[in-house]
Write a structure and sequence with these properties.
heterodimer, A: 321 residues, alpha+beta, five-stranded antiparallel beta sheet, elongated, B: 263 residues, mainly alpha, MetI-like fold, 0% strand
Chain lengths: 321, 263
């Protein structure tokens, strides 16, 4: 395991940010710390980096106990949400910073920086200052700066959080390709489940200072451990104690067995390939279903029309104590 | 209000209150040509006052710059007991009348004072001498660097410093390569204000120096002494020297200013 956190607890005054949290991250993997804000994921990342000192627990990087070691000596690359660019340095100087601190020879620094600028596609902007770059460019510079010192692990704290939606998508795809090329063990923090699902090999879902579930994207979606995971990783309908995903609701014009019930269509929303159907059951409960465009046309769905709904696949969770 | 009226109001305000008095000093100094003015600033007493003034500033400004930066970092970045008191104490010199400061130092370091007797026993003359004048000047010019640097430190936040530490920089390397460049304009402006205050200080220095001509007289005291002796050209000429010193400080700061267009 490249990174291990064992029973980490961290409090800020009265607030408990992390309560007995343990995770393991395999070498070369891309892991997402996913969860709502205030869930403790950024704190865990900062504890791993050495930017916060845990009140209890241990942090191991490549088998070495790092708990008491300052950030300066951990050899981690850290990327901040708001870039933390050195504003008085050019792009080149920013990327070279760690190498200069390590007093590497000039030629080596120049070659390494050129190589990295090429990797993050900033070659033409090397002599600019951060203020002259866009947000996406600044973040790529920050990534090159972190990678320059060949860190043992790369830690990204909401790396795309400050960017607009289009740039975010581009950088996401780009980060995935970069990781396939560079293969450095990477953990990134995000509150966006789509981002986590698209990028990560492993997702650690955190909430209220503890880990809810660890698993691959598919596992979290298909085998959620509890109600929180089920509702966080995708849209969901609640029918009493049962939870059902909108695409697991079957719509028919005739009744289909015992479990099917009559409902009235309230709204039909065309979202490109998918159609979202808002329904009201006879007992007044609301739910929404997700169907394909063809299916919606075949059923001639329109506000006011009557259909029979049957959940294909529901889930019940034991009450949490 | 129309734009031109606003401009006129602003310019006349500056003209009456700033430009006119300074201009008049220059005018009166050179009224009878450069000769008499030059003669009056090259008297032994005037030259000595000049040296004393520059010497005091040369000690007080670096002292307050180092203290100011360290103190600002402590106030913004550290948590310690009594931080509120330190923060309030820094502003004390702004609130106290310089004459009171001079008097307080006179009582403290005078022959009967708490510290004064120790210094007297060790043969060090503090009051009515240069050490006392340096001390009061440090006191009155202490807040400027702190007050300039604190808001800038708050604004830049800690992320750049944290980034530097994850990249392997020691606390000192982080300070020298990241923090200091980020606050350098605030420090520079604080230094200008500190220098101006140190050069122009009158009240506190007046009390503690004892006005010994040719020994403990600064430029400001020299101006007053010349004025009291009805040597107006001497007083004006010395004032011009003070004004030129201040202008030189501002120009020196501008020389270090990088090309703003690239930021």
């Amino acid at each position: 395991m490249a990174i291990v956190a064992q029973s980490v607890t961290k409090r800020f005054g009265e607030f408990t940010a992390l309560e007995d949290v343990s995770i393991e991250v395999a070498a070369g993997s891309l892991t997402a710390l996913l969860g709502p804000s205030g869930g403790g994921k950024s704190t865990l990342l900062r504890v791993i980096a050495g930017l916060e000192r845990p009140d209890a627990g241990r942090v191991l990087i490549e088998g070495e106990d790092m708990t008491r070691r300052p950030a300066q000596k951990r050899e981690v690359g850290f990327v901040f949400q708001h870039y933390a660019a050195f504003k008085h340095m050019t792009v080149r100087e920013n990327v070279a910073f760690g190498l200069r601190i390590r007093k590497r020879p000039r030629n080596e620094i120049r070659d390494r920086v050129n190589e990295l600028l090429d990797l993050v596609q900033l070659t033409g902007l090397a002599e600019r200052y951060p203020a002259q770059l866009s947000g996406g460019q600044r973040q790529r510079m920050a990534l090159a700066r972190a990678l320059a010192v060949e860190p043992k692990v790369l830690l990204l704290d909401e790396p795309f959080g400050a960017l607009d939606a289009r740039v975010r998508k581009e950088l996401r795809a780009w980060l995935r390709r970069l990781h396939d090329e560079v293969h450095v063990t990477t953990i990134f923090v995000t509150h966006d489940q789509e981002e986590a699902m698209e990028l990560a090999d492993q997702i650690v879902l955190m909430n209220a200072g503890h880990v809810e579930q660890v698993g691959g994207p598919r596992e979290l979606y298909e085998e959620p451990a509890n109600e929180f995971v089920m509702t966080f990783v995708g849209p969901v309908n609640r029918l009493g104690d049962e939870f059902v995903r909108p695409h697991d609701i079957e719509l028919r014009l005739e009744p289909n067995g015992k479990s099917s019930s009559r409902a009235t269509v309230e709204r039909v929303l065309h979202l490109g390939f998918e159609v979202r159907v808002e329904l009201r059951l006879e007992d007044g409960r609301e739910l929404h279903a997700q169907v394909t465009r063809e299916e919606a046309e075949r059923l001639e769905l329109a506000p006011g029309s009557e259909v029979f709904v049957r959940p294909r696949h529901t889930r019940v969770f034991a009450l949490e104590s | 209000m129309p734009k031109w009226a606003l401009r006129l109001a602003g310019l006349s305000y500056l003209g009456v209150l700033l430009a006119a008095p300074v201009g008049l000093v220059f005018w009166r100094t050179f009224e009878h040509g450069v000769g008499p003015a030059w003669d009056s600033v090259t008297t032994p007493a005037a030259k000595h006052a000049f040296v004393v003034t520059v010497l005091i500033a040369a000690i007080a400004v670096p002292a307050n710059t180092i203290f100011g930066v360290v103190c600002a970092i402590a106030i913004v970045r550290r948590r310690f007991i009594g931080k509120g008191i330190v923060n309030a104490l820094v502003d004390l010199p702004l609130a106290l009348s310089p004459v009171v400061v001079g008097l307080a130092f006179l009582l403290l370091y005078g022959r009967q004072g708490w510290f004064g007797s120790w210094f007297t026993d060790h043969g060090i003359q503090v009051v009515f001498a240069l050490p006392g004048m340096v001390l009061v000047t440090i006191f009155v010019s202490l807040p400027f660097v702190v007050r300039e640097v604190v808001p800038v430190l708050r604004e830049i936040g800690t992320e750049q410093e944290q980034a530097a530490s994850t990249l392997g920089a020691s606390p000192f390397q982080t300070f020298a390569r990241v923090t200091l460049p980020a606050i350098r304009w605030a420090v520079a402006y604080g230094v200008v204000l500190t220098t101006a205050r140190a050069l122009g200080e009158f009240g506190a220095v007046s009390v503690i120096s004892g006005h010994i001509v040719g020994k403990t007289e600064t430029m400001t005291l020299h101006v007053e002494e010349r004025f009291q002796s009805f040597d107006y050209v001497g007083a004006y000429a010395a004032s011009v020297v003070l004004a030129l010193l201040a202008i030189a400080t501002l120009l020196a700061m501008n020389l270090f200013r990088p090309n703003e267009a690239t930021r």
